[in-house]
Design brief:
Keywords: Methyltransferase, Pantothenate biosynthesis, Transferase
Strand order of the largest sheet: 1-2-3-4-5-6-7-8
Number of helices: 12
Order of helices and strands: HEHEHHEHEHEHHEHEEHHH
Organism: Ostreococcus lucimarinus (strain CCE9901)
Bound molecules: 3-methyl-2-oxobutanoic acid, sodium ion
Distance between the termini: 56 Å
Structural class: alpha/beta
CATH superfamily of the largest domain: Phosphoenolpyruvate-binding domains
Function: Catalyzes the reversible reaction in which hydroxymethyl group from 5,10-methylenetetrahydrofolate is transferred onto alpha-ketoisovalerate to form ketopantoate.
CATH topology of the largest domain: TIM Barrel
Radius of gyration: 22 Å
Number of domains: 2
CATH class of the largest domain: Alpha Beta
Number of strands: 8
Largest sheet: 8 strands, parallel, barrel
Shape: elongated
Helix content: 40-55%
CATH architecture of the largest domain: Alpha-Beta Barrel
Protein name: 3-methyl-2-oxobutanoate hydroxymethyltransferase
EC number: 2.1.2.11
């Protein structure tokens, strides 16, 4: 199957076909997402929370993101792989930001990068990374790396003035050269307005029905919600398409019970034998 390139993304957007995106952080999750035919695999810095167990996305490092991206790339055959620039890897200077993005591409082998925010100096950073030859995805609304200034993980743009600002942010990101924009946790009307006024795809999460595409976090979608922030329930906007956490828990309890009751491995799972004459010498 042919790779899902920027060209394919544009074609899908222009023909108004919904774009699908899911996060992945390692080989098995990426294999699942790619073989399901999802268009975009996001190596999200949500890994900090869903994989590493942190309370926020802030602690994950560029090296962590490179390691996750490498594993994901080994698994993916078709999807576009986008990697998050983590907190601390693109704020202090444009040069530093370009170097960080280059590392995700050269070492991680990502196809594109994503960063959060839409006011200067961020727009300059978007332009510089794009000028270095790297496609950039934007991210507006709830931008989790700003959790401490936003005052928590909460919906954005619910007041008209804030909503208008979000539309401006999205326009600025398009002008700066982003090829798509994630819109997170905003009212449907706001995401819808952004989608109407800009000419690049919007990928929504908790942003209603009228974006160009949808993204969910792998662990939330599959009901593997054993991470601190969500305290074992998926966020309100997330539909759980399976309860894999429950399936895993029950399998692990069965293993424990069978070992303790000497049922496992039993004869059925003790495959290695010795020839009778060898056994005689040994026993
Ligand atoms: O890190 C992440 O998973 C994300 C998505 C929620 C868009 O940025
Ligand atoms: Na992210």
């Amino acid at each position: 199957e042919t790779r899902f390139t920027l060209g394919e993304l544009r074609k899908k957007y222009q023909s108004s076909k919904p774009i699908t995106a899911v996060t992945a952080y390692d080989y098995p999750s990426a294999k699942q997402v790619d073989s399901a035919g999802i268009d975009v695999v996001l190596v999200g810095d949500s890994a900090a929370m869903v994989v590493h167990g942190h309370e926020t996305t802030l602690p994950i490092t560029l090296n962590d993101m490179i390691t996750h991206t490498k594993a994901v790339k080994r698994a993916v055959q078709r999807a576009m792989v986008v990697s998050d620039l983590p907190f601390g890897s693109y704020e202090e200077s444009t040069d530093y930001a370009v170097r960080s993005a280059l590392m995700l591409i050269k070492e991680g082998l990502a196809d594109a990068v994503k960063l959060e925010g839409a006011i200067e100096p961020r727009l300059r950073v978007v332009r510089a990374i794009k000028n270095a030859g790297i496609p950039v995805m934007g991210h507006v609304g709830l931008t989790p790396q700003s959790v401490n200034v936003l005052g928590g993980f909460k919906p954005q743009g619910q007041k008209a003035v804030d909503a208008m600002q979000l539309v401006e942010h999205a326009i600025s990101l398009e002008d700066a050269g982003c090829f798509a924009i994630v819109i997170e946790c905003v009212p449907e009307a706001v995401a819808s307005a952004i989608t109407r006024v800009i000419n690049i795809p919007t990928i929504g999460i908790g942003a209603g029905q009228h974006t160009s595409g949808q993204i969910l976090v792998y662990h939330d979608l599959l009901g593997l919600t054993e991470h601190p922030h969500h305290s074992n329930v998926a966020p309100k906007f997330c539909k759980q398409y399976a309860q894999l956490g429950m399936v895993a828990r029950s399998a692990l309890c069965s293993f424990k019970a069978e070992v303790e009751n000497k049922i496992f491995p039993g004869a059925a799972f003790s495959p290695y034998t010795m020839q009778q004459d060898e056994l005689q010498h040994f026993a």
